[in-house]
Each structure stands twice: as structure tokens, then as C-alpha cells.
Design a protein that fits this description.
Blueprint: H1 3-8, H2 11-15, E1 23-26, H3 30-46, E2 51-54, H4 57-65, E3 81-84, E4 88-89, E5 95-96, H5 103-112, E6 116-121, E7 135-139, H6 144-155, E8 158-161, E9 163-164, E10 167-168, E11 176-181, H7 188-196, E12 201-204, E13 206-207, E14 213-218, E15 221-226, H8 227-231
Parallel strand pairs: 1-2, 1-3, 3-6, 6-14
Antiparallel strand pairs: 4-5, 5-13, 7-11, 7-12, 8-11, 9-10, 14-15
Length: about 230
């Protein structure tokens, strides 16, 4: 199976967790763009209703086009379940997210959720965060270069401003993304604390101790990892 098929193999286990009347956090990225039509199909087939809260403008547009009821995050006081993808997943269900640039809104919604479920193919599983993917950091336009220099000095790190077609990428919040190549051995919690206290940093792509479950598509079938079992 190719990566698309592996991603889609995770959908049934995620869809089974969506129940009538739930407020559902709907994530961003290629995996979720494939999932949203399946959510719409489930609602129609089972004649149930949910309220969606989306982590990006693009996801919200797709969901609304498919007839899913979408509201603003400020109009809810809780989220029953959030479902999203990830760019990396370590053995303790810590994540790097933000490849699509929606990391701040993803973190808001995932942290609000009573249950956060991650969908991915097995290429996203790593031994340490930063092994295969750069760490996205959302920063204010005003002092982005100063922030980049501070980050570089942390551990002689390579930092680049994200570009798309030779134009700086702009998040839905109107900010830049800095992509940081992490050296092996960097402590994720310590690095996050350093970054989040830099003036101009809105949020980092570290999602630590947030995911409750990872549903992983592999060529040998779907594998499910639960945070509770890791703690036990």
C-alpha cells in the first residue's frame, strides 16, 4: 500500500469514536483532508449530527462544503474529541506537528479536547523528535530574524524561514514559520520552554503529553497505541 492507503486504513477506528451530539475538533493537513469526506459520509449514513471546530481555514472550508456544521472555537467551552495528523510520533506519543503551518490552532483545539486521537502512517514513527522532520515555530513578523538568531545560538541549530514559491509562508494568524533542524539528544521539554519564552514566538510544533491515542497505518495492518497503556 502507498502512504495514502496507509493513512486511510486508520479512518475506521477514528470514525467509530465520533458519536451523535459530539463537538469534534477537526485537524489540518493531507490526512485530515482525506478524513473529512468520510466524516460527512458517516453523518449522512447514520443520521447523526456533530459540531465541528477546525484548526485551519482550509479544513473549515472543506467541512462546510460537505455539510458539516462548523463553529468558531470561541463558541464552545469544551471539545469531546479532536482528530488530527502528525509529522512525527515518538514512542511515548509525543509529537511534532505544524508541517501545514496550523500548529497554534491545532494546539489550542487539541489541548481543549477531552480526547485527542492522532492518525498517521508508520513513516511518521520516530525514535526521537526531530529525527526526520524540522520543528516548526510560529513567530511574529516584526522580529522574526532576531528570534531566528536566538534559536540558532541555542545549540548551533539550522533555522530557516518557511518559503512557498519564493514567498514567505503566512499562517492563518498572519505570522511566519521558522523551521528548526533539531540535533539528536536535544531535550524536547527543555527546548520547548526555551522557545516559548522568546519574545515573538507564538507557539512551537512540540505536542508533548497531549495525544491520548495514535492510530498507525502499516503494511501489516493498523496498530493502535494508547497513552494509558504506556503509563501503565
Amino acid at each position: 500500500m502507498d502512504k495514502k492507503q496507509l493513512k486511510m486504513s486508520t479512518f475506521n477506528d477514528a470514525l467509530d469514536q465520533i458519536k451523535d451530539g459530539m463537538i469534534v475538533g477537526i485537524g489540518s493537513g493531507s490526512t485530515i483532508e482525506l478524513l473529512v469526506p468520510k466524516i460527512a459520509e458517516k453523518l449522512e449514513q447514520e443520521q447523526i449530527k456533530i459540531t465541528g471546530v477546525c484548526t485551519s481555514n482550509k479544513t473549515a472550508f472543506i467541512a462546510k462544503e460537505l455539510g458539516i456544521h462548523i463553529i468558531d472555537v470561541n463558541d464552545v467551552d469544551h471539545i469531546d474529541i479532536a482528530i488530527d495528523g502528525a509529522d512525527e510520533i515518538d514512542n511515548d506519543l509525543n509529537l511534532i506537528k505544524g508541517g501545514g503551518g496550523a500548529l497554534f490552532r491545532e494546539k489550542v483545539i487539541d489541548a481543549m479536547a477531552e480526547r485527542f486521537v492522532v492518525l498517521a502512517d508508520d513513516s511518521k514513527c520516530v525514535d526521537y523528535l526531530g529525527q526526520t522532520f524540522k520543528l516548526p515555530v510560529e513567530v511574529d513578523k516584526f522580529n522574526w530574524l532576531l528570534v531566528a538568531k536566538r534559536i540558532k545560538a541555542y545549540d548551533e541549530l539550522k533555522v530557516t524561514r518557511r518559503m512557498v514559491d519564493d514567498v514567505p509562508f503566512i499562517t492563518d494568524n498572519g505570522n511566519y514559520i521558522l523551521d528548526v533542524v533539531l540535533n539528536e539528544g536535544i531535550n524536547a521539554a527543555g527546548m520547548h520552554e526555551f522557545l516559548i519564552h522568546l519574545i515573538g514566538v507564538l507557539e512551537t510544533g512540540y505536542f508533548l503529553n497531549v495525544a491520548d491515542q495514535a492510530i498507525i497505518g502499516t503494511t501489516n495492518g493498523v496498530k493502535i497505541k494508547n497513552k494509558a497503556s504506556l503509563i501503565d
